[in-house]
Amino acid sequence: MNVSNRLLEQLIKQYNDVFLSRLDFHLQFYVNKNLDEVLEGASYALTPTENGKAPKKHPHQWRLSKETLDNVKEKLSQNNIKTKLEELRSKREKDGFEKVYQLIRDTIYPIKGVGPLMVYDTALRIGAGLNLYPQNYLYVQQGAQEGLKNLLNINSKKIAISLISPSPVSKLSAYHLGNFLCIYRDGKLKLVEDCIKGYYDQPEDPEEVEKEKRRNIWY
């Protein structure tokens, strides 16, 4: 797919206007919490609701069973894991998120039902609670990998941010860039009704449910 810089600028503008604040709203849920609260929320993939009701499971993980999430909570609640996370929070190293990601991956990826998207999302949520965000690398998950290939002609699952510049998308932070690539993986502006639709709504149409079960994504 040949995407011009002009189209990329249009896509980025729509992302900034519509979707950027929604991801920030989700991650803000994990800010200013103690570590136990952060791990509890991240283990169960909780996201805040815009209507002020109780947090619910994020659609990325809505198919994961309670047993799987209970196992994630058990693993992340180990004292040695919490000690390592507290150390990363206090050190505030430039590669802090990369270390958080590796720790979370090593800890929960062996659990049945946990895939790469759950690993990344969990690391991102915990990272937000520790004030450690992706800086050096773009972690490419499922739909974002398709977007990276279609929009930037790059085929990779992890890429240094420095290799993406110069490009209009380099204006986005690493975690927003991953989100952007997934949403716009088809290279098209979203319809107004799609933008208005609740970003974290779970699909209700049976055909859409089955479709997303196969793709294991929902944006």
For the structure shown, list the relevant keywords.
219 residues; mainly alpha; two-stranded antiparallel ribbon; 10 helices; 55% helix; globular; disordered C terminus
Characterize the structure shown.
The chain has one domain (about 5-215). The chain contains 10 helices and 4 strands, in the order ααββααααβαβααα. The protein has helices at about 5-30, 35-45, 65-75, 80-90, 95-110, 115-130, 145-150, 175-185, 190-195, 205-215; strands spanning about 45, 55, 135-140, 160. The chain has about 220 residues and is mainly alpha-helical. Strands 1-2 form a two-stranded antiparallel sheet. Mean pLDDT is about 85; it is low at about 200-219.
Write the layout of secondary structure elements.
Elements: H1 5-28, H2 35-43, E1 46-47, E2 56-57, H3 66-76, H4 79-91, H5 96-108, H6 116-130, E3 137-139, H7 143-152, E4 158-160, H8 174-183, H9 192-196, H10 206-215
Antiparallel strand pairs: 1-2, 3-4
Helix pairs in contact: 2-3, 2-6, 4-5, 5-6, 7-8
